[in-house]
């Protein structure tokens, strides 16, 4: 089987889950995905297996498969992993960061700001999330923590869907942009401890967001009990 087709099918399905085109709790199968993406069942089945490993699909043998609801417990655990890893690399990041790295962060921050000026929908919010992730990924690679970047990229499905919901809510559209500007300012000033504190505050916002989104859209959430 052509690996690129497997990857394309996985990427398309993952995006559809992340943007709620495939809704939490919705039944899913290899046959359904094969028809949706006009592929055979083999790449569709491979996509389901990968997505199950990332916690985005629940597979019940001999029963059914469904798009996972947002597990609040797992979302908090994913957030804890990201917060712990990202704050821990502050020292190494400040030791290695160059002006070129800062300019790259500014580039992603500008993209987020531009997208933030557009009407919110699932596509723009997804692009916003991707560029927000790229902004932060610069710090991982500068700190020499490529494995941390890989772990965060592949294990944040529940946490990331909360972030996308928050962005769709539209009331917080300027919040991340302002935080990014503040982080860049602290990096340019060489204020490592100020950056560490601002980063902790920035990443910590999601705890309140989880509770807010669960109240606003409880049908999308699973309490993880």
Q: Any low-confidence stretches, pLDDT <50, length ≥5?
A: none
Proportion of residues in extended strands: 5-15%
What's the helix count? 11
> What overall geometry do the principal axes of the alpha carbons give?
globular
How many distinct beta strands? Answer: 4
Can you walk through the features of this model?
With 225 residues, the chain is mostly helical. It is built from 11 helices and 4 strands, in the order αααβββααααααααβ. It is globular and about 55 Å long. The relative contact order is 0.15. The mean pLDDT is 91.
Brief rundown of the structure:
The protein has 225 residues and is mainly alpha-helical. The protein has helices spanning 3-18, 30-37, 41-53, 72-88, 90-96, 99-116, 122-142, 146-154, 157-169, 175-188, 192-216; strands spanning 57-60, 64-67, 70-71, 221-222.
Topology:
Elements: H1 3-18, H2 30-37, H3 41-53, E1 57-60, E2 64-67, E3 70-71, H4 72-88, H5 90-96, H6 99-116, H7 122-142, H8 146-154, H9 157-169, H10 175-188, H11 192-216, E4 221-222
Helix pairs in contact: 1-3, 2-3, 4-9, 4-11, 5-7, 6-7, 6-10, 7-8, 7-9, 9-11, 10-11
